[in-house]
Amino acid sequence: MAQKHIDSESTNFVASVQKALNILNCFSIIQPQLSLAQISTLLSYPKSTTLNLIRTLESSGYLLKDHTTQKYSLGYKILNLSYFLRSTLPIVQYAMPLLEDLQQKTGEIVYLVSHIDGQVLYLEGLYPSQRMVQYSISGRMLPMHCTSCGKAMFAYFPREKQDEIIERWGLPPKTPNTITTKEALLKEAEAIQARGYAIDLEEETPNVKCIAVPVLNNNGVAVAAVSISGTVMNMKDELLPGYAEMLSRTCAALAGQAHEFPASKV
Predict the structure, then answer these.
(1) pLDDT tens column, 153-186
(2) How many Cβ atoms from other residues are within 10 Å of residue 226's Cβ?
(3) Could you state, in order of their start, the residue ranges of all structural domains in the chain?
(4) pTM for this structure?
């Protein structure tokens, strides 16, 4: 679902700053490059105002201009800030030995996530050594209803927070297997609490199956989750109980540091 832009006129924020941030939020994996006209249209800003904001962001390194296409993309300054942010998250380094142990024992992909603003925030991913292409997933955000980690955390939210997330982000289909109704998602949340783990069976990506367990704070609310992810062929049903047990031990160990996850700081 597209980013929701904040109307600066209805808040106490500095209007020009909010408008500049709205421009940055226009960019996505689907739209990595945008022209001045496209940005102006997306935000309903006058072209002159949009151009002034873009030039300011470009001069500060937050936007890059391709002089061949005359289109803009996010600048390297944002990548630099991402590095600074990661350095302030000691929970990732704390969790790393636990995640490495899981990855070595299962041979599958292991993810550590938290949640921000009603969405899953990926903090780290560990991949099998034989995987030819590896990339950093840190910073990726996905909906909660279609991932094992998202559903694992969603199940341990108060009902009012669950309703708020569904109302804000909806339940868009990612694959034919995605849960797309509120009734079905709430029923799934009850089942997750009963068994203690969540499963994603090709609900976000075809041919991918995942199992996840939440990290709970002292109030029993989820602040993070850890998952094991692999192909449908590799993630056989008979392996899941053992994976769930390993994940539960890992998440119990992380629960003592629940206050260090991003979800606990906002």
Answers:
(1) 999 999 999 999 999 999 999 999 999 999 999 9
(2) 28
(3) 8-80, 89-264
(4) 0.83
